[in-house]
Amino acid sequence: MWPRVNGMRSLELGTPGAMRAELNALVLSGAKTATTGLLDDYAKETEGLEYPGERLAVLDDEGGCVAAVEITDAEVTSFAEVTWAHADAEGEGFTSLADWRTGHRRYWADQGTPVTDGTLVVCLAFRLTRPDVAPQNHRL
Fold first, then answer.
1. What pTM does this model have?
2. 107 inside domain
3. Three-point CA angle 25, 31, 34, nearest 5°
4. How many domains are contained in the chain?
5. Which of 47, 62, 102, 112 has its CA 20 to 30 A from that of 134?
6. Domain span at residue 83?
């Protein structure tokens, strides 16, 4: 189960350290309005999919809330069917869908989960709702 903070489910982007700090900064700047996760991770964590209107706490490495986002869309699709519009909305500077796929395959392979074209992923779109949430150094 994913942590709950301030009564919300959490969103922990990337891996702890520099990557998470960079991704959180992109969310806070408004450049990042989408993310992609593996559907299998939801089953492993016994979590249901996010839904439009749900608010999530964006967490830092210590589990503190740095912002809140509201889900505007949640879609399950195969890795091969992820659109450029979604990939570009991740705001991470990918120059093409092929570039996005290469980066995400490498990331998940480094995490021990090789991804194929048929791997099911969850594409989340969101909007920043609370950039002013005070960091919390505890989980609720």
1. 0.90
2. yes
3. 95
4. 1
5. 47
6. 4-111+119-130
